[in-house]
Amino acid sequence: MTIKTTIFRFLLLFAAVFVSLGCLALNVPDLIEEAGLPAPASVISTNTPLARQSSGVPIPARSSERRENELQDSTEFDALLEDDYSVDEDEYYAEMEAQQTAIAKNREDLPSPLAVKQSAAVFEQVGVMGDGAFSELAFSPDESKFAAGTTSGVITVYSYPEQIELSRFESTSEILSLAWAPDNNLLAYGDNTGRVGVWNAAADTVQFTADIHTDYVRTLAWTSDSRQLASAGDDMTALIWDVATGTVEQTLAQHEDWIRTVAWDLDNQRLVTAGDDGTAIVWDVASGEALQTYTGHNGKWIYYTAWIPNSDLVVSALDSSYFYDEEIQDVLHLWDAKTGDVIATWTLPDTYIEYVGWDALTESIVVVAEAVYFFDGQTLVEKDRSPEITNSWFYHASYLPAARQVSLVVDNSIIVTDPWRGETLVTLQGELSNIEAVAFHPLSAEVLVSGGNSFISAWDLANSEQRRLDVQHTDWVRSMDVNQNNQLVSGGDDLSVVVYDLNSDAELVSVAEHTDWVRAVVWSPDGARFASTGDDGWIYIWDGVSGAVLQEINASENYLMSVAWSADAQYVAATGLDDTVSIWDAGSGELIEKLPDYSSGADAVVWSPTDPNLLAFGSTDLEAFVYDMREKAVVQYFDSTALAPDADGYWSYFTTLEWSPDGNWLAIGGSSSMVALWNTQTWERVSLQTDNTEVNDIAWRADSQALVAGLGNGAVVVWELRE
């Protein structure tokens, strides 16, 4: 069983797990009955306004079924762990030592690493397209509009429920947090560089931006008078901003790990902060003094906090699914902000919690997780009839109290659902969430892109307009290639490989031989055949017209990430997680050569388009190599220093290497935010900056005068060569 299958089963297990269900007891308001809520799932008696103890309740029928599934999946999972991980420790370390010894021996014959020489050639950026994936969502307090932030730094405000675009703001980095001020006009944002900004969405003006945080800004909260803003994140500090001047009034620093949540009390005098150090701290904002530290969660990460209005009570919550190694009880706590005493604790199903807040209509604490839970009087009300909640892995959730609706970011879509009636009210589809593959359209000024959706889009460079090709995939499209006959071949997570005619916009061939994700597809130089490979470790050679399998090669027991043709179409090379580069005869399927282990990993391989004896590959060890089959040796070698974009940057691994069609440039992209171009005649370098995110794919235009990069934040960047 593959590692990926293990992880998938692991996630599937926790999607099915439900532990004993408890409830918090509050006073039963008449609003429950008036709101038409269904009969409570369970009842607990109490003698205080807020429950003073946790208490078990009968498990509903649906949860009982899940518990049966849990037992079955747990048994299978234990067996799976035993199958995959019962490795003799001595054998493992002996094998690793032997591998490192072999690598060290092979490296003795490597040439000296290339020194960095900056080329005079200039590649000018001529286009950036794509807003990226939805990363954050915030509804205005009056629920008349919502703001959506993306991984590429774009914030768009839409009317609700019409979804009409009202205004748009473009930052430079991934939006991690959004918060509307109570005045419904000011919108605060935080990003992954530490920037905090306030934008007046109504006037389309910037109130202020500041870069005082030194790391991710994960959470924001406004005072009720819209005059102050609290921000916090991975630098372990919370800042209190004067919004009118954009200055910091108070710095709160006592946490020892990331801060995940901040919340003001009703009179704006106290702030609670909490996060990965497992503590919640109550601050006096005026003095900056820590008034109380709550440690009842015993060091486990706290993701959400909310004040109970007109009280000293705070509710805090864990994201219980992160603690898969133990059964987590009491994931929600109610505690006194003055004394630090716990008032009540209760357990929810072992699932992702994405929102905790207060619902004034029912006077209840509302929790959005795999279901929507309301904790009021003596009842626990569970509503989960919306399939977007129960069947999805969502990345953001919030509750609209006036409309009694839930907003979600699910699979790069914004969804608003009514959990009471089980209706989906709004679905706003985002753009590509993660660009996995790019290519130039040979007949038009368009760039073809695919990735974290099941479709392939064509972006017009002239006007940035997007259209979708009628290519029938049902999951992520991870690889594409275009031949001289204007035919596109694509493959991805649905295990299929599709040939599409760009002249007629029609599908020609669809084949499905792979048994796991297809990571790479590429046409032969003459355009008559194409090769595919992926996580099943097989290489298939296909007839480009009929789709018939011409050759099948059982190349590896591990994932293969890349495949490439030699310039004379005689050989294919492949590399992947087995840390080797192997060369095969495309006609006979015979193994011709397995390159020595020069490093502990190889993620990408590409053949020179002009010399059938030269191929390049990049490793996870921050190195790239050019190998000559005639000499059976590496003839060019770039170490991490040579590839680092600057003194502070580095390449952690390679995702793509692409030789220009004329053979004069070798482009390398990876997990840093740079594309490195090497002139293969002089071995001088050109560095191209992207959007502070990983580069997943690179493609050259047929004339070798332009290249395009697909980024992990959903954006596409195009450069042209200016001599």
Task: Write up this protein.
There is one protein chain. The chain is mostly beta strands. The chain has 6 helices and 56 strands. The strands form 14 sheets. It has a 4-stranded antiparallel beta sheet with strand order 1-56-55-54, with no helix packed on it. Strands 2-3-4-5 form a 4-stranded antiparallel beta sheet, with no helix packed on it. A 4-stranded antiparallel beta sheet has the order 6-7-8-9, with no helix packed on it. The longest helix has 25 residues, at 61-85.
Q: Mind summarizing the main beta sheet?
A: 4 strands, antiparallel
Number of helices: 6
What's the helical proportion of residues? under 10%
Note the gap between the termini: 52 Å
Considering the chains and any ligands shown, give keywords for the structure.
723 residues; mainly beta; 4-stranded antiparallel beta sheet; 6 helices; 10% helix
Describe how the helices and strands are arranged.
Elements lengths: L2 H14 L14 H4 L26 H25 L3 H19 L14 E8 L4 E6 L5 E6 L3 E6 L5 E6 L4 E6 L5 E6 L4 E5 L4 E6 L6 E6 L5 E6 L4 E5 L4 E6 L6 E6 L5 E6 L4 E5 L4 E6 L7 E6 L5 E6 L13 E5 L5 E5 L8 E5 L4 E5 L3 E5 L2 E5 L3 H4 L3 E7 L4 E6 L2 E6 L4 E7 L5 E6 L5 E6 L4 E5 L5 E3 L8 E6 L4 E6 L4 E5 L4 E6 L6 E6 L5 E6 L3 E6 L5 E6 L5 E6 L5 E6 L4 E5 L5 E4 L9 E4 L6 E5 L5 E5 L4 E6 L1 H4 L10 E6 L5 E6 L3 E6 L5 E5 L5 E6 L5 E6 L4 E7 L1
Antiparallel strand pairs: 1-56, 2-3, 3-4, 4-5, 6-7, 7-8, 8-9, 10-11, 11-12, 12-13, 14-15, 15-16, 16-17, 18-19, 19-20, 20-21, 22-23, 23-24, 24-25, 26-27, 27-28, 28-29, 30-31, 31-32, 32-33, 34-35, 35-36, 36-37, 38-39, 39-40, 40-41, 42-43, 43-44, 44-45, 46-47, 47-48, 48-49, 50-51, 51-52, 52-53, ...
Helix pairs in contact: 1-3
